[in-house]
Amino acid sequence: MTTQLESAPDALLAQRAKDGDERAFGVLIRRHSPFLVAFATRYLGGSSDADDVVQEALIAGWRQLDELRDPARIRSWLATSVARRATDVLRTRARRDVRPLPDEERPSLAPLTEAVAEGRAATRALGDVLAALPQDQREVWLLREMAELSYDEIAERLDVGVATVRGRLARARGAVLAAMEEWR
Fold first, then answer.
1. What is the Cα gyration radius of the chain?
2. Alpha-carbon torsion (137, 55, 12, 156), positive or negative
3. DSSP 8-class letter at 46
4. Chain-wide mean pLDDT for the chain?
5. 3-class DSSP assignment, residue 31
6. Phi, psi dihedral angles at 149 (to 5 degrees)
């Protein structure tokens, strides 16, 4: 049964989870957790809080599945929950005025191929560019490019107009493209 569940589409798994199927929700967790952790890490600027934020979002997601309107968009729905909790973490940090320490890079024991090394360097460069963006632009960029939310969903999430979302996203995309062109 698990094999069939593993290959089932998100919409079916989400609907089964809404009906109380814990195994179906487990498959969704295994399928989307890597993305959600990466999303939270970028959102928080490389914070060690990412795993906690994702765990809290998944627990809340299980409890609030009856609020999911479109089961096919479970990934975006969970990413929105992660973003909400990550925003809370950022607000708490701002109140404490604590700046996170940069994550240490751990040397790899396995030899890296040139392509892998280049890919990792590009990922680090993108992370640096995103970290340098103003928070409002970074937030919109992550919600659009990583969480794949629509402009309307982002506007609703951030309580701003769609035009504001488009403007912030345009500025963020411009900064990211310019910085990545310089990196090359």
1. 18
2. negative
3. S
4. 82
5. helix
6. -80, 155
- For residue 21, count other CB atoms closer than 10 A to its CB: 15
Average pLDDT over residues 66-90: 89
Distance from chain centroid for Cα 118: 23
Which pair of tokens denotes residue 134? 């103003």
**Residues across the chain:** 184
Query: 81-115: per-residue pLDDT in tens?
Result: 998 888 888 877 766 655 555 555 555 545 556 65
CB contact at 8 A, 41 and 32: no
Question: Residue 55's pLDDT band (boundaries 50, 70, 90)?
Answer: very high
The Cα–Cα gap between 98 and 29 comes to 31
Where do we find the tokens 């500025």? 171
Q: Where are the alpha helices (DSSP H) in 97-159?
A: 114-132, 135-141, 151-158
Number of H helices, E strands in the chain: 9, 0
> pLDDT grade, residue 158 (50/70/90)?
confident
Which residue has tokens 């957790």? 33
Contact 42, 63 (CB under 8 A): no
pTM of the model: 0.59
